[in-house]
């Protein structure tokens, strides 16, 4: 079947032509489709039968970057990367990613589980909703997806074969340009609150900061530590009080572990800052901001503990195999190697998280948590804080010894008391 972009009518016809999907949805029943994509990259449809008792999601790649238009061509191969990553995530962290039902490479689409009982996290976080299982779930996803695709677990051959499956240069370039480069120089797609002109220009002239950002870009481009989601923000996570699912891994490739961890933490911080406008009551705001900062701490601490435990229990990789530590004093040396590795991942978490926080304030795509603040002056309060915090996370990253050091920067800059 030759590639064609689907719409809410033709998507139903397409599904009826895939007999294997009859195990998931009654293809003979009346089907209704609606598009629910966020408009950045792809077409996303929910297709339901007449009474919504059965449903699937169909996601299709367009041959261009949707947020920029047809003048910005983009390979449709990203849907293959997304499907591969979803299958790997289901293997390594079962229950924490949607199930895949069908993949069509020629049509650049995947049909998957409809997560209708969950919400994309951004809006409920703005609504001050609490997610009691989120820290446990996302730290498990991070620990398992990163450890089991790293050299600490895989043999050299296994790791190289994994890397070969996820050579993703076109979407890598989007992140390289839009996260680490273009926001910090003149580039036509950049967008920011005009009230931030002085702050944006100050960032662009700050040589120390730009050197540090260049180092983080080099890390992103050259440190193939593990299979990373590479776009793991609160718009790529769906949750409710009991479940968490990670979605949209089309940017997946082998990169630095701290990029994924930093993305989760910095998005919680950006939501925390948004409440200076979204939550006018001082006590209510302080309580929820502290909840979010407690989440930051819990996610890192649980991730580090789970990653370390997985490593102790599964030290089969060829980087430094178990036999390497088999000598008097070897157990202590292995423990120190693990401690140093997690300390470095925390430094990278700070650096990559800070870079992403900055780019959201002055690049092509911000975050709804903050853009939903209608008053530009109120919005600028959160944005200025994000620029100060993001800058400090990047510049001070190598001095960060524990996650509370990152949280302390947020508290100092934003004046959030415990």
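-> sequence recovered:
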């Amino acid at each position: 079947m030759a590639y064609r972009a689907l719409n809410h009518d033709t998507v139903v016809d397409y599904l009826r032509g895939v007999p294997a999907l009859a195990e998931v949805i009654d293809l003979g029943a009346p089907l209704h489709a609606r598009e629910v994509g966020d408009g950045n990259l792809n077409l996303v449809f929910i297709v339901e039968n007449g009474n919504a008792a059965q449903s699937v999601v169909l996601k299709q790649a367009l041959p261009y970057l949707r947020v920029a238009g047809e003048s910005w061509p983009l390979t449709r191969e990203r849907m293959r990367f997304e499907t591969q990553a979803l299958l790997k995530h289901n293997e390594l962290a079962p229950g924490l990613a949607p199930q895949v039902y069908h993949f069509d490479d020629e049509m650049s689409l995947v049909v998957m589980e409809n997560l209708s009982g969950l919400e994309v996290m951004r809006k409920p976080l703005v609504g001050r909703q609490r997610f009691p299982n989120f820290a446990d779930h996302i730290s498990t996803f991070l620990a398992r997806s990163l450890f089991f695709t790293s050299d600490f677990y895989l043999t050299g051959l296994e790791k190289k074969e994994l890397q070969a499956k996820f050579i993703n240069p076109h979407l890598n370039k989007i992140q390289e340009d839009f996260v680490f480069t273009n926001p910090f120089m003149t580039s036509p797609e950049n967008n920011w609150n005009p009230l931030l002109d002085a702050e944006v220009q100050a960032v662009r002239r700050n040589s120390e900061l730009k050197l540090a950002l260049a180092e983080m870009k080099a890390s992103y481009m050259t440190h193939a530590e593990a299979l990373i989601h590479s776009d793991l923000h609160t718009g790529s996570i769906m949750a409710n009080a009991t479940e968490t699912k990670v979605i949209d891994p089309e940017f997946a490739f082998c990169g630095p572990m701290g990029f994924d961890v930093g993305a989760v933490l910095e998005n919680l911080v950006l939501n925390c800052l948004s409440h200076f406008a979204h939550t006018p009551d001082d006590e209510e705001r302080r309580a929820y901001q502290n909840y979010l900062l407690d989440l930051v701490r819990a996610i890192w601490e649980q991730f580090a503990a789970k990653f370390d435990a997985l490593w102790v229990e599964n030290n089969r990789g060829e980087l430094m195999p178990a036999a390497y530590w088999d000598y008097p004093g070897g157990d202590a040396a292995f423990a120190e190697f693990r401690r140093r590795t997690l300390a470095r991942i925390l430094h990278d978490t700070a650096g990559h998280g800070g870079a992403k926080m900055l780019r959201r304030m002055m690049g092509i795509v911000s975050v709804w948590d903050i853009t939903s603040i209608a008053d530009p002056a109120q919005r600028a309060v959160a944005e200025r804080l994000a620029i100060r915090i993001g800058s400090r996370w990047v510049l001070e990253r190598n001095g960060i010894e524990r996650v509370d050091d990152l949280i302390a920067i947020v508290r100092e800059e934003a004046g959030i008391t415990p």
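Residues 300 and 403 are 7 Å apart (CA to CA).
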